[in-house]
Design goal:
about 180 residues; Rossmann fold; six-stranded parallel sheet; binds flavin mononucleotide; electron transfer activity
Length: about 180
């Protein structure tokens, strides 16, 4: 089987890598490639163009921002043709130490991409899936992807990943 799903992630301390690998396992390693974008050179960014399903992961860092490495990739992504393609986002965060900025890299990534021609996002979640009270998410009807907290809710991670991947599979399995 040709691999038609590409998971691209950036990480600082490795949590996003761990989650990316779990997502890959759930989707099936026979059809899913995985990349740490730190190792993709600018001249090789055409790799993003090779997949029908693109899954982008980043930790959320200071001020609710995505990993800096994504900033050099987005100008390229904005020129991609997204017709007949799907994009799903995930982030890692820490709801106890950053309650007001929990997982907000999702918003930044979504904002960067939302105006791309014909882009379609999969894997949106509802704020009710997250048990906390202060986050900026409370003002949103939906969260733009999967938010994982390995510091405070690690026990929920396997189920969250599975539920999310099952949702993606509704589209992917028919591809
Ligand atoms: C300097 C710093 C700033 C952070 N800022 C946020 C934040 O604003 N919101 C949040 O949800 N998590 C924040 N975190 C928590 C990270 O997102 C969390 O530790 C995550 O698991 C890191 O993923 P990684 O291991 O892939 O780098 C911050 C962590 C660090 C070290």
């Amino acid at each position: 089987m040709d691999k038609f799903i590409g998971i691209f992630y950036a990480t600082g301390a490795g949590n996003t890598k761990t989650v990316a690998e779990e997502i890959q396992k759930e989707l099936g390693e026979d059809r899913t490639d995985i990349f740490d974008i730190f190792h993709i050179k600018k001249k090789d960014y055409s790799i993003f163009d090779e997949y029908d399903f693109l899954i982008f992961g980043s930790p959320t860092y200071t001020g609710g921002t995505m990993h800096f490495r994504w900033k050099s990739v987005f100008p390229f992504l904005k020129k991609l043709d997204f017709s007949e393609r799907y994009v799903a986002l995930f982030t890692l965060g820490d709801r106890k130490n950053y309650p007001k900025k929990f997982a907000l890299a999702l918003n930044q990534m979504h904002n960067e991409l939302k105006n791309c021609y014909d882009i379609a996002f999969l894997g949106e979640c509802t704020p009710e899936d997250y048990h906390y009270t202060k986050s900026a998410f409370l003002g949103q009807k939906k969260i733009h992807g999967l938010a994982i907290d390995q510091h405070n809710e690690k026990n929920l991670t396997p189920q969250r990943i599975q539920t999310w991947v099952n949702h993606l599979r509704e589209y992917i399995d028919d591809w």
